[in-house]
Each structure stands twice: as C-alpha cells, then as structure tokens.
Amino acid sequence: xxxxxxxxxxxxxxxxxxxxxxxxxxxxxxxxxxxxxxxxxxxxxxxxxxxxxxxxxxxxxxxxxxxxxxxxxxxxxxxxxxxxxxxxxxxxxxxxxxxxxxxxxxxxxxxxxxxxxxxxxxxxxxxxxxxxxxxxxxxxxxxxxxxxxxxxxxxxx
Length: 157
Ligand SMILES: [Zn+2]
Ligand SMILES: [Zn+2]
Prior knowledge:
- The protein is mainly beta and 157 residues long.
- 9% of the residues lie in helices and 34% in strands.
- The chain has two helices and ten strands, in the order H-E-E-E-H-E-E-E-E-E-E-E.
- The chain has helices at residues 5-11, 47-53, and strands at 20-24, 31-35, 40-44, 58-64, 68-71, 74-80, 86-92, 98-103, 109-113, 127-129.
- The strands form two sheets. A seven-stranded mixed beta sheet has the order 6-7-8-9-4-3-10. Strands 1-2-5 form a three-stranded antiparallel beta sheet, with no helix packed on it.
- The longest helix is centred in the N-terminal third of the chain and has 7 residues, at 5-11.
- The N and C termini lie far apart (47 Å).
- The chain binds zinc ion (2 copies).
- One zinc ion binds at residues 25-27, 29-30, 92, 94-95, 97.
C-alpha cells in the first residue's frame, strides 16, 4: 500500500498499548498473533486486491513486523506494484486463505487480512484506497435482499 506511515498513524484511534489480535486461516493450519495497535486499517480496491480476493476489495490491518507472530506453512506470491516496489502476498498452503501482505516499500510492516481475525469485528476500516477502481456492486443498494444466515434456496418453488 502506498500510504505513508506517519500519515497513517494520525488516522488510527488512540487505543491502549496492550491490545492483542489473533487470527487463523480457514483450515486452521496457519495462525497468528498481533500485538499492539494497527498502524492503519485500510480497504483497497486495486486490481491486485480484487484478483487475489476474488471480490471487490481486500481489507487489511498494518502492524509493525516486530509485533507479529505467525505459525504454519505459507505460500508466497510476489509481484511488482505500479510504483516499482515488490509486493508479497502470503496464504495458507492448504486452504489458500490470504493471511498477510508485505511490500519492499515498507519492509518493517505487514498487513493482515481483516477477515482472518478471530474477531472479524475487532477493528474498523479507517481509509479506503484505489476507490476509483471500486466495482459498483461492492457497495450494495439499500433494497438488496438480506438473510441473517445461509437461506434454504431449495425451499423456493
Ligand atoms: Zn489453511
Ligand atoms: Zn490493493
């Protein structure tokens, strides 16, 4: 992500210093612990995030790499960003859940996917980036039909 860290720090809520966030992949083979407050929590609509997530955006919390502990076997994929830095995305080798990304532009930080947090509601997105690339369907209209859980599709005649 091309966001400056000094800028990002201002955007985060002033949280306590003893926060801990845990997360894991779908199959449980990869797990992690993040200590302290995130530097920034961002939703990104860039092409790489859309293709890697298979949907309209990724959402990630950036932490200092020294505040991070990851267990389990990861598959890494690297590509060159528009600005020339190399971005590496790490996912579980078994279930392919995206776990974190890192960027040679800011090698002292790692960005963890919000959806893999054990408490997916623990953090708030504070910035949206590459908004110009957001697909129109990534923000649903108010009249979209909503179910609290998986509906029984077969019940419909
Ligand atoms: Zn897994
Ligand atoms: Zn992105």
